[in-house]
User: What shape does this take?
Amino acid sequence: MTSPHDRRERGVIQGTGPVAWTAAWALCGPMFTLERTTSLEQVIKKSRFLATAGPVASEQAAKAFIAAHSHGGANHNCWAWRVGQSFRFSDDGEPGGTAGKPILLAIDRLRVENVAVVVSRWFGGVLLGSGGLVRAYGGVAAACLRAASLVEIRIVQEATVITTFSDLALVKARLANFEGVQVLNESFTEAGAIITAALPEAASQQIVQMVTDITSGRARISLSPGPPHSQVPKQTSRT
Assistant: This one.
């Protein structure tokens, strides 16, 4: 009998870029990831389907998740993962395009990333046909993701604020009142304080102007030269 690891190497499609995800798509609304691993089971025409979805931060983590949640006794362990613009999926012996790709489409349609989904199938004796397989794998994956606790991924820009002691309380209060701002670090100097904060990327220039205005230019605020990056706020969830 072929091992689950050997089967996973068949029918693997990988790639990056705009095949199922584009920068324009990301700008259409919020993106989400999973708070924790979730499983969901359905029986479709006597075949048992078990979907397991979980958060992953890299390709290596996705591979480890797939290995951990593939079942040796299943006829097929089909999967897909997406981390940013990178993705990969496998039909694991099912007809081409009927399993892995529908799982990936479920991930993308629900605007979830940094996630891996494994759908294991135990054949029940009734053939589903290509259309039936697409609906089964995509539907079970989507149902599993909908049942999961999701957290919003925010695009943030890191900033450094250098302020005097006389302006410190005002600057911290105004930053705290601005939705999406997170103070990452605060250190003190002889003249005042240095604050490192994550700013919502879409409002970063507005916040820079605000800090400059309320301190009449006394506080200096600079944005990190690096590109904006993703941040998962623990306090925001969607179930």
